[in-house]
Amino acid sequence: MTEGHDVFISYSTADQGIADKVHYTLEENGLSCWIATNDIPSGKLYIDEIGAGIKSAKIVVLIYSSFSQASKYVKNEIHMAYKYDKPIISFNIDGSEPSEHMGYYLKVMQWLPAYPNPEDYLEKLVVDARELCNEKNDVPVVVDFTNFEETDFSKHKHDWISIALLCLPFYWASFIYMGITASKKIWVLMGLMYLIPTLMVLILYFQIWDYLFIKYPMFILFVVIFVMFWILAIIHGLVIRNEFLTWKAILRFSSTDDELFNYLFEGYINAK
User: Fold this and answer.
1) For position 185, what pLDDT does the model report?
2) Helix 258-271 and helix 219-254: axis angle, to 10°?
3) Which CA distances in Å does 220 have to 25, 214, 224, 229?
4) Cα-Cα-Cα-Cα dihedral of 191, 221, 12, 38, to 10°?
5) What is the DSSP annotation of 56-84?
6) 34 - beta bridge partners?
7) How far apart are CA 164 and CA 33, in angstroms?
8) Model-level pTM?
């Protein structure tokens, strides 16, 4: 169960950098915060944890921008905040005007312009947040990023998974090598077919993979499909390898006699 806290931070993933600084600054000034990258336990459903996080917060700080305005997840979070009657501070970082939908929920809430440099307005944000949380405001506000670190999604990755993924392109590249060596265009095409999605997975994993699981549980299904695809490709690779080794053995046996080679290889193919 989500424990009570002072602030729920709502934002678009495109604004992760400023969200991290808002989170850091509020925490440094004595306000406990809920933020998705830190407070969604592994294996939990995103939507359930978000609802519990908003319900148990005293206020919501919305990092408002053109990105958050377009995010259906942010819209859902603000809708829930409105439903639970939570005060909302809209920390507007790029001067975007609220859409009709967002304006309905935000028109009676606190609007804090914070552009062009949002860091210059963090002190005001802390003061306003303390006031809404009924916290004492006689303590000086500290805005110091000396020990600040941005969210690093890669810290949760397992080394053995990383090593396995890094080896995958070499495996698919073997299809291409065997295809070129044996003049089998179909093998080359198969290698490319397996290689391209593998590279896509590598990019996702090493860049934003962890957060995709936090934000979009549907990616678990994507992983299941990829693992099945991977197993199929390995089985296919073993079949191709066997045929390739046979091709090499026949080539050595027949030397430069093309007629003999074609006869033996066609006999092998038909025997299968």
Assistant:
1) 84
2) 140
3) 33, 10, 6, 14
4) -110
5) TEEEEEEEESHHHHH-HHHHHHHHHHHHT
6) 8
7) 36
8) 0.62
* pLDDT (tens digit per residue) in 128-178: 999 999 988 889 999 999 989 887 655 545 555 556 666 666 667 777 777
**Which residues face 64 on adjacent strands?**
92
Give, in degrees to the nearest 5, the angle at Cα 232 between 228 and 233.
Answer: 115
What is the layout of strands, in order, in the sheet containing 110-113? 33-34, 5-10, 57-64, 88-92, 110-113
Q: Is 257 helix (H, G, I), strand (E, B) or coil?
A: coil
Half-sphere exposure of 237 (CA within 13 A, CB side): 21
Note the pLDDT of residue 112: 93
Cα separation, 166 vs 202, whole angstroms: 8
What is the full DSSP assignment across 132-199?
HTT----SPP----TT-----GGGG--HHHHHHHHHHHHHHHHHHHHHHHTT-HHHHHHHHHHHHHHH
Distance of CA 134 to the CA centre of its chain: 36
Q: In angstroms, rounded to a whole number, what is the distance separating the alpha carbons of residues 226 and 28? A: 42
Task: Determine the Cα–Cα distance for residues 7 and 94; give it in Å rounded to an integer.
Answer: 22
Give yes or no for a cis peptide into 41 (omega within 30° of 0).
no
CA gap 74, 242 in Å, rounded: 53
d(CA 237, CA 172): 8
Six-digit token pair at 246?
Answer: 């046979």
